[in-house]
Amino acid sequence: MVTKTGQKLPTINLNSTNLNPGTSSWVSTSNKIRKALEEYGCFVAMYDKFSVDLHNKAVDVIKPMFDLPNEVKARNCSDLPYHGYYKPGKVMPLLESLGIGNAPIIDEVHNFANLLWPNGNPLFCETIHEYATKVAELEQGVIRMVFESYGVEKYYKDHLDSKTYLLRIAKYRVPLKHEDNIGALGHTDKNFITILHENDVNGLEVQTKDGHWLSFDSSPQSFVVMAGEPFLAWSNNRIHAPLHRVIMKGEKPRYSFALFSTTKDTIETPKELVDDEHPLQFKPFDYMGLLRFYTEDVTRMAVCTIKDYCGL
Q1: pTM for this entry
Q2: Among 106, 118, 140, 228, which one is least packed by beta carbons within 10 Å?
Q3: Angle of helix 122-149 versus helix 24-39 axis, rounded to 10
């Protein structure tokens, strides 16, 4: 695939003015978000409620975590796929990451920190909890806007009450001269929505529907909001779940945060999104079932598996 120059991911400004529910600015922004997710499966959110200072603190507190011995980081384990420590391997040797379940809950962050630092790490806990809380607020606002734009806002509260989060924190090292610069292979996300954030080392690329790769220039207050396959199914195939990857550039490590959200309840298409023009395309399903189906065969990484899992 080729990288397309000139074309960029849509950028949407999310500030206190257009995040006020019920206003004309809220409605206009909601429609922009829905259209961006339908066309690209993602957009760049400029989010001024998230400070540059918090960005800097979050990047600073995670760097020492990756310097810990591998056997210490391996204490971050889970029975759930992709929820624990991922060490560099043959397929993706530049990538290393750890996962914190439900990071907007302070006790969960403390539980994670106690695995790595038996004497505790108050600064890490305070910073990461604040980070996750702010980003979760962004995610919730985006979901509410999409629900309202589709005219199905009555389902939002149930979705919110069933929501669960996973914060994955990653480091991509600089490749050696003989290594490829692929940080993460192309894949689609298997959760409902992902909020991606990185330090000043760019690397994220998103594939358009016509097969071109678009890059993204990061800033401390910019986030990439990306739809996953469950969101595609929920919308009855209106929302796009894009293929994306990481290509390492520059001479510094890339640090990134990914807040994954999903729901504990069964995911099904609202009846309001089914009509003669849009017949029902997916059976009701659960997130963990999809995730386990995906992990049964690694060749499914670069394809949209939701249709194989629960398509009609």
Answers
A1: 0.95
A2: 118
A3: 90
